[in-house]
Amino acid sequence: MNLFRILELKRYRLVGEKMNKQKLISLSKEIKKNIIEMIYEAKSGHPGGSLSCADIITYLYYETMKVSVENPKDPNRDRFVLSKGHAAPALYSVLAEKGYFPKEELKHLRKIGALLQGHPDSKHVPGVDVSTGSLGQGISNAVGMALGLRNQKNNAKIYVILGDGELQEGLVWEASMAAAHYKLNNLVAIIDYNGLQIDGKNEEVMGVAPVDKKFESFGWNVIYCEDGNDFDKIDQAFLSIDDTQEKPTVIIAKTVKGSGVSFMEDKAEWHGQAPNEEEKEKAIKDIMN
């Protein structure tokens, strides 16, 4: 891998500098703690899927993406799209930790008139690039953004996270076909592959496998991340991206729904259920240990 390739992959790292794993772990714990507390305060929300993708979003904002808190609309910034918009608490928590808005706002999740609603809102929340919520539309927006940036000769990248259950939406595959057709090598999709959705196991509700073969057949570069809740594995996956190929990239990241909370892990019932006070305290204890 040549010098220019390393610089492109890791814009904030010096050549040869290692990922600050301990810092990321510490940040991730705080972010997951925030997720639990804000959903508890709201008495509604989606803890399972927020926790499963929290490590990946943390990695993106602290290790990979070129973003500016001081200038959140910088035209040369990388863009992030949370296609699984119900996992908004994970994104909000990262944005608050980065300093896009005061952490105090996290306490008012889903409250009438508050900044942070149940799904990301690009019109009102600093740092949110696309309003999402309707599954399949996030990646569709991401494809359009990637094509637009390329037409403007802008070297910024688009990163989009999808849920694995979201792959049941036909719109995902129309967007994926367009991304390959236009050879959008500035687009990186990450599948939060936790195997569960609101009604149970994906394979029982509507099987999506084999995801890798499907994306390959649509013309994507496919990378498998065996543990999307481990920063070493996440780092390896992103360092494997070769954007010299004229095709978009998808990282299929095996994750655990409810990651970090013993009684939530791999439990479909925690897809959209807020913890009570006792559960909140136990969850935070699990996360911070």
UniProtKB/TrEMBL annotation:
Cofactor(s), names only, from the UniProt record: thiamine diphosphate
InterPro entries hit by this protein: THDP-binding, Transketolase_N
Residue ranges of coiled coil: none
Keyword Transferase tagged: yes
Domain of life according to the entry: Bacteria
Boundaries of every Transketolase N-terminal domain copy: 34-281
EC number(s) given by UniProt: 2.2.1.1
Keywords for the protein's UniProt record, in alphabetical order: Thiamine pyrophosphate, Transferase
Pfam families on file: Transketolase_N
SUPFAM superfamilies on file: Thiamin diphosphate-binding fold (THDP-binding) (SSF52518)
CDD domains linked: TPP_TK
Annotated GO MF terms: transketolase activity
Gene3D superfamilies listed in its UniProt record: 3.40.50.970
Family to which this protein belongs: Belongs to the transketolase family.
Protein name per Swiss-Prot or TrEMBL: Transketolase
